[in-house]
Amino acid sequence: MDAKTRFIEIYKEKIKREGAEGLLAYLTSKSCDFFTAPASARYHNSREGGLVEHSLNVYDCLADYLSRDKVKSEYALNYSEESIAIVSLLHDLCKINVYKPGFRNVKDEFGVWQKVPTYEFDDKMPYGHGEKSVYIISGYMKLTREEAFAIRYHMGFSGEEDKRNVGKAFELYPLAFALNTADMEASYFVEKED
Fold first, then answer.
1. What is the pLDDT of residues 173-184, one digit of tens each?
2. DSSP code, position 101
């Protein structure tokens, strides 16, 4: 099954919140490149369709992390399947319509410059990273406070946020820590480029 089909299946099965259908209609519309966009310009999944693949990888990593006995019993992290799907599948909506195909010059193994395809970042709505995803989702459906904080702080300490706020968000909203863990696992292990 391709990534788009799997994403839509999980989305429809797990997310039943009022407004979810409208958000999915936007994601599948011609004005949205969610299913064809890369996940980054030069790093993880920097290829066509990389964003939806990354979202699914984060979903798998988050579901796995939250299913662990220790996480459930000792840390008391128990979230609905809907919350898990929302925060993982939608955490990077901020990347919709921001990557444009381009070229860059790199030297080949012989030291000769070659023009290679790449993506350029061009954000027409520079509202931040996690906060922009929360903003987009909130235009369609209501998030719980913990879901909003999880998406907002999913970059953890690697983002540009005030580090004190990141630590406090992780302390108050453990789903934010769990989503950050899943995002890092997907980015650095599952999607590791050879």
1. 999 999 999 999
2. E
